[in-house]
Amino acid sequence: MINNFQRNILNYLYLMYKSGSPVCEFGNFITYFKECSQDKLIKNLKKLSKMNLIQIQGDLVEKQLDKVQVNYSIFIKITDYGITNIEYPKKSPWIEF
Fold it and tell me: What are the residues whose beta carbons fall under 8 Å from the beta carbon of 42, sequence distance 6 or more?
């Protein structure tokens, strides 16, 4: 069962990925994302996907300086840190920042 803390991390991770920002600071959550290069992040996302560990998909709806809206779905089967079988089978509501 996913808790709110884990969900918030996943939401933030996805937002950073879709907005083109490098994901550099997640503590020890997923070591694959401790990179400063956007290309490296995308490469690692693809690597995780090929390993059947993670699948992330969605659409960036609106991006402005003061607001970002994302319609997203995330599927994660397992990670080294114990999160398993997280599924969002339908598109979630907008998240705004």
Answer: 17
CA atoms within 13 A on the CB side of 93: 1
Report in angstroms the alpha-carbon separations of 49 from 56, 62, 94: 8, 26, 24
Locate tokens 């090929």: which residue?
50
Cβ partners under 8 Å of residue 95, min gap 6: 11, 15, 69, 70, 72
Rounded percentage of the chain residues whose pLDDT exceeds 90: 0
pLDDT digits (tens, 9 = 90+) for 20-51: 554 433 332 343 343 334 555 556 555 655 65
Tally of domains within the chain: 1
Full domain range(s) for residue 82: 4-96
